[in-house]
Each structure stands twice: as structure tokens, then as C-alpha cells.
Amino acid sequence: MHDDERVLLVGGGGREHAIARAVARSDATLFACASNRNPGIAALAADVELLEETSPEAVAAYAESIGATAAVVGPETPLEAGVSDALDAVGIYAFAPGAAEARIETDKQFQRDFLDEHGIAGNPDYATFDDTEAACAYIDEYDGDLAVKPAGLTGGKGVRVIGDQVTPAEAKQYLRDSEYDRVVLEERLVGEEFTVQAFVADGDLRVTPAVQDHKRAYEGDEGPNTGGMGSYSAATPDLPFMERAEYDAAVDIMQSVVAALPDYKGVLYGQFMLTAEGPKIVEFNARFGDPEAMNTLPVLETSFIDVVTAARDGKPLPELSFASQATVCKYAVPDGYPTNPEAGARVQVDETVINRVNEAHGSSADVNLFYASVDAREDGIYTTTSRSFAVVGRAGTIAEAEAIVDETLAEAGTEGLRVRHDIGKSDLVQRRIDHMRRLRGQAE
Predict the structure, then answer these.
(1) Tens of pLDDT along 241-269?
(2) Domain 6-99 is found in CATH 3.40.50.20
């Protein structure tokens, strides 16, 4: 029981709604602060303060005013701003890395140089440029395709991949049209992407099941990149297109990173490309993924606050237990997202719909609703121009979890919204399996 713990959650998106649910299940008293009011978080919290979440002084002052005993920072921008450092400085333990350690995410040049200097396995070829024409010349000279990445934060939308999304000429034009001070050009990795998230403290880590996110806006993996349209996980630590040894290899890479960052605390997110040669590093993030947190936290049976308080008190992190369930998450986004989103559609999915679907399925499967960027008005909840909400199904198989998500969305209706319905469907998962079989066959 943690009814004496007063936990501050920083951030107001779908990821933070999932964290809020996990905190609430642990009997701790939840407080939240963000620049927006998330109705899902507000329903769980004793108090919600609207403030600039990238202001270390404002967050620390609010934390002190509520007598917080611990804090969790959800998004990357407060980490970069030093919110975790400010909380620690006033004696409130933040389960999140300081700005120096968060550079593993917030500065892609630092990330690649760090991995290189420490000999971390799976780091692709890369080069960093602060001169646009020099970067364009490198594109011309490089023998192969490249991923073009701004060095700083772009909300998951700044990457362009030659040979997949753009031609070399389009990549050079993208650089010339952009205002990025530094870019990292990386060897294009071919395979299937997956993410492993871990709780980290005192050089120790506890890993969670692998998740596959879907960045592209439209079905069939078409269209521009987004913050993530949805994701799935299996009832096992690995995914259907992986072998368990490949998951373990990714975990080994994460252990090497933690060993090289002894002061790191919080969540470390490793994004990998499973290639024919094994997992390679796409990137590291210094927090839970959005949407991947919504796959992981609902099946976490260990108390989330047990992890946070063990880290705070210098005790070994508890071993993690997860329900043997698959999950499928689908985001509903406004029509036109991400290029020309139309705000103002009324959200029809609510807790009454969720409860009705859950009652119909009994204990075999269930579904959850996580609000992200919505406008809560007196007469209902409406979309903004960003991702609106996610529906997450849990069941014995990926196919069953996917079916309950689509059932929920169909019952409620999604007028004015768009969903990637193919996420988690059997034919999409099979394409991933077939893709890896082809790559492995070519490598033999």
C-alpha cells in the first residue's frame, strides 16, 4: 500500500494518462501538472495544475506546494529543460533522468557519439553536419541509403529515409528548406522496428515486453511520419517476427547503455531495427514511448509505485511481472492529421462505451481508453489538431486484442476522426513475419 505517497505526474498526453492509471492502481495520491488539461488524468488526480511543463521553477514550486514525495516526468521536452534536476534540487525524487543523461534522446549527435565511444553494439554508420551543403555532398557520395535526422527534438516527425520516404534529391531539398542547425546522417537500417522499454536506477534495469509502433499516417505504412498511430505487443516478451534470442540481444544492448550511464534513472526506451544480422539501434529515448506506454503499463502487474519508491530509496528494483496478454493500441486522430488536421469533432468514445464492451466480453478480454490531446468543454470532449485518444485492447492473442479495439471504435463511431485499422490485424503481422523470413533467407 502506498496511500502515504503523493506522486506528481508531469505531462498531459496519452502516455501520461497511462502512467496516471498505473499510479492510481498503486493507491498513491496522484497530482498532475501540464500545459493542457487531460480529462482522463483529471478524473484520477487529487489536483491538476495548468502550468508550462518546461518551466523547472514552476514545476518544482508546485511539487513543493503539494508535498510531493516523488515525481514522474512523462514527455521529453521537460527533461531537456531540466525539470527532473529542479525537482531533485528541492528534495523531491524525480523518477526521470536529469538533462545531462536525457541527452541520450535530446541530442542525436551526442547519442551516436556516446554509443560509439563506449563501443555499444548495434550502432550504425553515421556522420554529423552543421553545414547543409556538406551534408548534401555526403548524400551524393555515400554508397547506400541514409536516414536524415535533425539532431534535436522534433516530436518524432523530423526523420526522412532515403529509399523509403524520399529520393536523394528530395532529401537534399528537405535539408535546404529546413532550419536545422545540425543533422545526423545515418546508414539506413532495413528490417522490422521494435521497442523495448526499461525501468532504470542505480545501474540496474528491469525490461518490459517488446512493442511495435506504427509511425506512418496511413494504412499499409503509407504517408508521412506521425508521433505514432498505434502499436501492438504479444503475450510473450518478444514479437511474432522475432526470435527470443533477438529480444535478449536488444536487452543486452540496453544493459551496456545503462552500464555506461551510471547516474541514469527513470525509463529508458530503446528503439531497434531487427535486421538479418540482429538488432541495430534506431535511437534511444529517455522516457516511455507514446503509444508504447499504453501497451506496457496496462499489463504490468507489479506496482508501478513499488518501482519508483525502490529507486528513490536506493533499494533493488523489484522483478517485474506482466499479464500473459497481447495488446493492441489504435490512436484516433483528427481528419487531415498530420499535414492539415481539422479540429472540433466531438469524441464519441467514452467510459460508458468502454464499460459496455468490457461487460460483453467478461474476463476474456478488455479495452481501455486513454485521452491525449482533446478539448474538454461543458457539452463534451472535442478534438484538437493533434492525436486525440487511444483505444487499447488486451486479450490472449494479438488478433483478439485487435478485434475488441475495432469493436469499440465501431460501436462509438469515429466521425471526424481517422484510425489506422490495419494495426494488429493478422495480415499486417504476417507481412512482418514474411519480411523477416525474406531478409534472413537473403543473408544465408
Answers:
(1) 999 999 999 999 999 999 999 999 999 99
(2) yes
